[in-house]
Structures are given as structure tokens and as C-alpha cells.
Amino acid sequence: MGRRSGNSQGNRSRQLIMAKHNENLRRDTKVVIAGRKPEWTGPVVNPPVWRASTHLYPDMEAFTSDAKRNEDGQFFYGRRGAPTQWALSDALTKLESGAFGTTLYPSGVAALSGALMSVLKPGDVLLVTDNAYEPTRMMGLGILKQFGVVTRFFDPLDLDSFAQQFCPRTKAVMLESPGSLTMEICDVPAMTAIAREHGAVSLIDNTWGSSLGLPALQHGCDISIMSLTKHVGGHSDLMMGSASAGKKYYTKLRRTAQALGHVVSPDDAALALRGLRTMPVRLDKSSKTALDIAKWLAQHPEVSHVLCPMLPGAPGHELWKRDFAGGCGLFSFVLKSADETARARFIDALDLFGIGYSWGGFESLAIPFDPAPIRTNSAWPPKEWGTGAHLAIRLSIGLEDPQDLIENLEQGFAAMEQA
Ligand SMILES: *Cc1c(COP(=O)(O)O)cnc(C)c1O
């Protein structure tokens, strides 16, 4: 009894030792201990939810001599966060190999805009991958244009044309791999090397791979951005984003986020931390099920293409194997049918799949997509597929039993046949 009770000092030093060895540990262990500083958690496992705008100073002396008020992890004012948010951002930093710090944002889109605004100024040129998440594309054509930044799009699969697109005004490159919806894997190390040669900053939307699946900073990216709404939240009940970077770019990210007034609620930060602890288990399970389903779809007579980088033989698989340590449950496939109403019947018949945006939750989702009209600098559908309709569907695979999902998809194909 004596050993266990009243031993908070021992407990503290044990946790500090755990934190110190963080670097040498493996993925799953790191995820369990990341960000759990005893000064933030106290004697419990998770940091309490510190709901706070005002942080009180003990006296005038402390108020007037607070030289550290603008440093991370210091009480100052609610917009700078409190231990709940600090613990989340510290955990994300520990999990992003090579990062010095992580800024939190109220959504993934806010993280993308906040990160871009931290590295761009009027007159600069931004290169964005042509298969980017659509709001990223719209940011380039909308708000960034309004502030004098020129956005150009590049084909993620053509390194030569990518290299040719740089000009002296090119200051930043936005990558995303795999690309949204169409799932192309780009050569991240080669592209970031080209960007660096031209003095441009490389940013990546790393939502699909996450810091666990794609060590983005190790592959040459300067800023790694995630929509925490997806894998980290994991339960379809929170919106948040993050951007992690080494010291130079973290300083810019943080300054810009503060200038823009970005802050996340402590309740959401606590939910995100809770989600984070089970993320490897969920990613492993949904990746495995997604791969089983991708294999099943690949030999289905109604399917023409499976766009799943984890699937041997699928587009991008070799680069995925080279650069990624894991995958997730999100992938797409293309129907042989050119009949849009048949595709709608297919999706309507999937009663285990929700119809809706977002992904990375515990429940499976399905949506149709037709990216051709928004592409400008790369071909969709790929030329070798030939002309005609290529009706596509994106699946986000959750934690259900794979066999039930396959039977549900069978039900979808059966409904497609019925005219
Ligand atoms: C969902 C998503 C985002 C945006 O995240 P929100 O949290 O919904 O704002 C950004 N990038 C990708 C690839 C996404 O799928």
C-alpha cells in the first residue's frame, strides 16, 4: 500500500522518464505516451478539460514581469490555449518525426489556409497538385488570389513538367499524396527536392497517411498538415486540423495562427486526444478490411479500376510501398457501367455505408465522384483508360466486419443490374 499511495513524486519521475525515451520507441508505444506530461495531466491519465479565456496572475509582480507570456506552454490568455490543447499539440509533434512544434486549427481547411498564409505574400506563386482536396484548390483560386498570390496547378505524376513550372516567384508547393478522390501517389522525396532547389517551401496535406503512415518531414516536406477530423478524431464527432513543422516554419505557423485568432476548444482537444490513443488500432483494422475489399473489387466483373495504393498492382502501389509505413480505409474504384442511375442504385443499396462527406470514422461511407470538370493540368480519366464514362465511387471503410461489408457491396451490384 505504501508503495502505491502517496507516491506521486515517483509517478512523476516515471512519466518523465517515459517522455525522455520517446524517440527510441515504436509507433504504438509512442502513441500511448505522447504528450502526457505530468504537469498537464496531474495524477490522472488524461489532461483535464481546461475551459478558460482568462488566465489569472497571482499578483502585479507576476503580471508585469511575465517575459514568457508568448511562449508555448505558458499561461497567458485563452487564445494561447491551456494544458488540454498543449497536450494534444505536443503529442502530435512527438508523432511527426522531425517536428519542432504543431499548431492546432478549428478544421483541416483552417490548417491548410493558415499554413499557406504563413509562407506566402502578395506577388508569390503557389504550385498546387492538380488532384488536391477541392477546398485547397478553391483557396488558391479564391482567397489567396484576392491577397495577390498566383496559384498554378501541376500534374502530380509528371516530375519534368512539375520542375518546369517553377519561376523566380514560386515560393511554395502544396502536395497531397494520395490525391483526394483519385488516389494518385506522387514522388514526395523527388518533388520536395525539386522545390528546395528552387527555394520553395514544401507543404503536404498528409491527412490520408497521417504522421504514422507517411513521415512527411523525413521525406523533405517543410510543413505537414492533417485534418484531425479524420483519423485522429476517428468517431465522426469533431472538426480540427493541425500543421507540424521544424523550428523555422513552426515559428511562422504559430505567429500566423495567432494573428488570425485560430484557437481550438479544450473539449474538442480532449476528444482528439482520446481518438489519438486508439488511432493505430483503428488504422490497422480499417486498412486490412479496405485491402480485402479492394482485392475483392479488383476481380469483380462490374469494376474496371481499383484506386487503392495499398493494393499490389494498383496505381501508385510501388511508391506507396517505398514511402509509406501504413495506409487507411479510404480508397476509390471505377465502374464499368456508364449509367449514372445504376451507380445511384448501387450506393442506395449499401445500407451499411452512410452517404456523406468526411471519412476516417468508425463507420463506413460511400460517395460518387466525377473529378473531370475541376482538373486543369492532369488527365482524368487517365488517357489509357479510353474515352467514355468512368463512373467512380469512394469508400471510407470503417471498423465493421469485412464480410458484412462485402455482402453489402454484392447487394449494391445486384441493385445496379435491376433496370
Ligand atoms: C477532409 C479533408 C480536409 C479538410 O478537413 P476538415 O477538417 O473537414 O476541414 C483536408 N484535406 C483532406 C485530404 C481531407 O480529406
UniProtKB/TrEMBL annotation:
Tagged with keyword Lyase: yes
EC number per UniProt: 4.4.1.8
Protein species of origin: Pontixanthobacter gangjinensis
Protein name, per record: Cystathionine beta-lyase
GO biological process: L-cysteine catabolic process to pyruvate; transsulfuration
PANTHER family cross-referenced by the UniProt entry: CYSTATHIONINE BETA-LYASE-RELATED
A single GO molecular function term of this UniProt record: cysteine-S-conjugate beta-lyase activity
A Pfam family this chain is assigned to: Cys_Met_Meta_PP
This protein's record includes keyword Lyase: yes
Keywords: Lyase, Pyridoxal phosphate
Catalysed reactions, as listed in the record: L,L-cystathionine + H2O = L-homocysteine + pyruvate + NH4(+)
SUPFAM superfamilies according to UniProt: PLP-dependent transferases (SSF53383)
Sequence similarity: Belongs to the trans-sulfuration enzymes family.
Cofactor(s) this protein requires: pyridoxal 5'-phosphate
Residues annotated with N6-(pyridoxal phosphate)lysine modification: 230
Classification via InterPro entries: Cys/Met-Metab_PyrdxlP-dep_enz, Cys_b_lyase_bac, PyrdxlP-dep_Trfase, PyrdxlP-dep_Trfase_major, PyrdxlP-dep_Trfase_small
